Amino acid sequence: MKRILSIIFASLLVFSSCTNFEELNTDPNNPTTTHPRLLLTNICWNTFSESSLDPLYASRYIVQSDGENSEQFYKWNRGSFSYYTNLKDVNKMQEEAEKISANGYVALAHFFRAYYFYNLTMTFGDVPYSEALKGETDANYTPVYDTQENVFKGILSELKSANEILSKESDNLSGDVIFGGDITKWRKTVNTFRLKVLLTLSKRANDASSTVKSDFAAIVASEPLMTSSADNAQLVYLDQEGNRYPMFNSSTFGSGMYMDSTFVALLADKKDPRLFTFCTQTNNAKSAGLAVNDFSGYNGGDPAAPYATVNAKAVAGNISKPHSRFYASATNEPQILIGYSEQELILAEAMVRGWITGDASTHYEAAIKASFKFYETYAADYASYLGESSVSAYIASSKNSLAGLSSEQKIERIVDQKYIQSYFQGMWTPFFEYLRTGYPAFRRQAGVEVPKRWMYPQAEYNNNAANVKAALDRQFSGQDRISDALWWEK
What we know:
Blueprint: H1 2-24, H2 36-48, H3 54-58, E1 62-64, H4 83-99, H5 103-124, H6 135-138, H7 148-166, H8 183-200, H9 212-222, E2 233-235, E3 257-259, H10 261-269, H11 275-278, H12 283-287, H13 307-315, H14 325-328, E4 335-338, H15 340-353, H16 360-378, H17 388-396, H18 407-421, H19 429-437, H20 458-463, H21 465-476
Antiparallel strand pairs: 1-3, 2-4
Helix pairs in contact: 2-4, 4-5, 5-7, 5-8, 7-8, 8-9, 8-15, 15-16, 15-18, 16-17, 18-19
């Protein structure tokens, strides 16, 4: 009996020791699981607060006077795969959501995946998609590159899934710093972004196998879309540490940054009062006491001229700087990922192209009114120039109305409005819109072409060479150049 008890005691001791060993080796400060809401907050912040001056130089909003900016002179080469780092968090949120059947977070994971892969493929062309981010689950560290056509199909499929999943959800999404958990507003965002992706493919819309037009029409006919600026997918900044406007107190707004003549001239020609909220008067205009709303008091630098020429113009007091609110205000204006005004311009263009029926002018004018209201609200010092009477006069002007124009002229004006509202907002959207439509004209030095893509990162050549080579062979006869057009823009 004593022997039996001894064996039982010994067995319990071993079991207890094993259990304690496992417990001791579980680090409570390094959890292996987390609730998807904790990941969603960070994903929203990283996605919506993304900012960079690079697209402002490339898209002819600003110029540099104290050195040659590579984006301004279209001298870039390799791009970055950093979005795949962001996608790791998105995939993790989806994994954690699936564990607890939190389908709303699964839907948002599809949306954010679509957003990041859209930007990746627009940057490079073919990119890893179907096998991407499977190093942890499948030990696949050298993913194949999917064709751009298939990446777009995947993006649209994920957005469709996101909308369908959200249509069956009713619970609010905690951790959501954009809409406070409002699922209906997320559905509107997803569907508006679907329209944006489909319009991006306007040059492929007449392909024999294309469903771009019918898919666009079906979304407009049956899915929820934004009905006002209250539906904007935007991040509102707070005057708190870690929650301030990204450009606040930025030293990059030093003496060398000025406005581009492309942007200033477009706004001045249209007599667009949003110009007053975007930049300052020239020093000469201030000295002469010109009124804020005197359009002759604003000027830009030639983006194709040597930077020393722009500097000489600045020294002479004849060039405007970006408005101080972009670096002096902790809250400034919300960052819009996609919003009502852009949606209305997308719908207006689709109507001009005959993809859907309706009055393009109605949506075009709604977009302009929404944009004016945005700056009336967030650039309050200039609200008196942006009220209802101002926007009505602006829309009625022959420089801005769609009345009496050809289809191509209407598209140019629609894209111009998208360009104007993308100042410090749209990241690379206005650049991609230029590649798609040619509007507005981007001035550059003689013999210099606007790049159509970025070269693949050097790390891919070092770690995934065979698949990079296959992608280049398939797309560009083995070359990796910034001058080669991608599938979507051919």
